[in-house]
Amino acid sequence: MNKLTWMTATAAVALLGAAPAWADGKPSAEITGFVGYRMGGEFDVNDSTTGDDNSVDLQDSGSWGVDIGIYRDATSFYELLYSQQSSDLDSGDPSLKRADIKVEYFQFGGTLLYPYDDNWFIPYLSLTIGATRFDVQGGNSQSDTRFSGSLGGGLRIPIGENFAVTAGLRGYLTAVDSDSQFLCVGTGGSANCLIRSSGSAFFQGEALIGFTGVF
Hints:
Helices cover 9% and strands 60% of the residues. It is mainly beta. The protein has an eight-stranded antiparallel beta barrel. It has a two-stranded antiparallel ribbon with strand order 10-11. Strand 7 and strand 8 form a beta hairpin. It is elongated. The two termini are 28 Å apart. The model is unreliable at 12-23 (pLDDT under 50).
């Protein structure tokens, strides 16, 4: 287990331990497990033969994650978000096509709920900041961590007092230094480095559905 995963788990335990006790029956914490479909994500690759820079897209694929919330009051909570996707690159280059890219988000922030007495659903808005971890599973296995943030929103459909179904959208934006070289795939002189010479941001969008337990 990598260092960021340990840090996320430790923070989750600390948040749960700090959950306030509500004397009037209001919720103190919640946990949401979700699955989604993540789209977007483009890398710049320098061709070692021609020296040209080419854009390569990360394939759209499934994702999953966990969101832990500690309630500040009845309509807002602090949250700790973890989400990951494993995919490959949309490229005809054999050295790149073999690379399996894992993108993980470790985020902390908050969510606002907008309940209405006459509605059977509850809109929400979420804003988080944290880190993105890129990990190459093939070739010269490497990983790199960058600062990122996310903005999400959607609907919650309560099922009784302690459960809800959540459906929403979330966008992730990762800052990338335009002069950096990381995520090199391939071997020897044929290695290619993603994010080699241009670009300053990595963007992905995610559609998700989850199940929430409130306690």
